[in-house]
Amino acid sequence: MPSLVQYHPRSFCEFRYVYPVVSRRSGGLSIGVNLSPNRQCNFSCVYCQVIAEEDQQKQINKKSDFVDCIRVESELRQLISMINDGSLFQDHWFSRLSDEKRILKDIAFSGDGEPTLAAAFSDAIKCVTNIRKQLCDDSVKIVLITNGTMLHSKHIQNSLEIILENNGEIWTKLDAGTPEFFKKISRSSIKYEQILNNLKELTKRIPIVIQSCFLSIDGQSPNESEIKQYSQRLLSFHTNNIIRIQIYTAARNTPENWALPLSNEQLDSIADTVRNITKLQVDTFYSS
Ligand code: SF4
Fold first, then answer.
1. Closest CA to 34 of 113, 131, 146, 132
2. Which of 70, 104, 208, 277 suits a disulfide with 231, CB 3.0-4.6 Å?
3. Distance of alpha carbon 67 from alpha carbon 70, whole angstroms
């Protein structure tokens, strides 16, 4: 039986957009909001769980990209009620959570694709932040998990401000120190420089958390030169607005058998190098 952090279904009951999950990086119970039922993303990461699941199913049910914000609101209200009245913890999986882990840590925009590409992104941010205000403790965070490609867009930036006003955090991806490694991991046509520019501009104005997933590629941990260049990229941003770096490896299946989780020792070694060079807070999340 997988551990709770390895068990990450992005569907729950009859819900379409909202699901409960135990998250390593949130440090406990999180509500995921999936604005990408059609799995829209401009990356195709070698470690993407969504792609791995598609490969296992051998078929993709093409879904509409329409996001029904009224349904998002209704599902979110129901799930928060289930956490507050304890009925969620009668569920086979969530009954395994200890009492102290039954506290909601955050509501996270993540799901089956890149949330900032959803046409309903701005509306969904307003809707979810309103519900958080009405139904949740002030300590509950709103988290946006993004690949960073759309952060230059004005309407996305307006939504980021709303997230930050609601005890929010922006968690944005940076998985490489060089364009070549970026291309190999993201398999995207987006330019690496665009991501760097977005992060540089963003950190001028607002605090962010940087998330970096490293893997064993063809049996090799990322080499020292790659990690040093990655660290220098971090230093090229406005580091006073980097809250922390989350360095992690895959916790579940990847779509590629040549891209595998790193050992705890390999991950620690990367984190040590990054800490030594950047002097920033670096948190590590092992595969299990
Ligand atoms: S950015 Fe996220 S959703 Fe998109 S391919 Fe990468 S891991 Fe998957």
1. 113
2. 277
3. 9
Range of the domain at 141: 18-285
In this prediction, residues 268-277 reach a mean pLDDT of 98
Instruction: Confirm if 269 and 231 have CB atoms less than 8 A apart.
Output: no
Band of residue 49 on the pLDDT scale cut at 50, 70, 90:
confident
* Whole-number pLDDT of residue 13: 81
CA of 87 to the centre of ligand 1 (A): 32
Indicate the number of domains in the chain.
1
Q: 113 in a domain, yes or no?
A: yes
C-alpha to C-alpha distance for 63 and 70, rounded to whole angstroms: 18
Q: Does 3 reside within a domain?
A: no
Domain membership of residue 6 (yes or no) is: no
Name the residue at shortest CA distance from atom 3 of ligand 1.
113
Site residues for ligand 1, CB cut-off 6 Å: 41, 43-45, 48, 50, 113-114, 147
Kindly state whether residue 179 falls inside one of the protein's structural domains.
yes
Query: Looking at residues 266-280, what average pLDDT do you find?
Result: 98
For residues 25 and 172, what is the distance between their CA atoms, to the nearest angstrom?
Answer: 13
Whole-number pLDDT of residue 3: 62
Minimal CA–CA distance to 214: which of 173, 181, 247?
A: 247
Atom 7 in ligand 1: residue holding the nearest Cα? 48
Q: Which of 149, 211, 163, 195 is nearest to 33 (CA)?
A: 163
Per the DSSP assignment, residues forming a β-bridge with 169 are 143
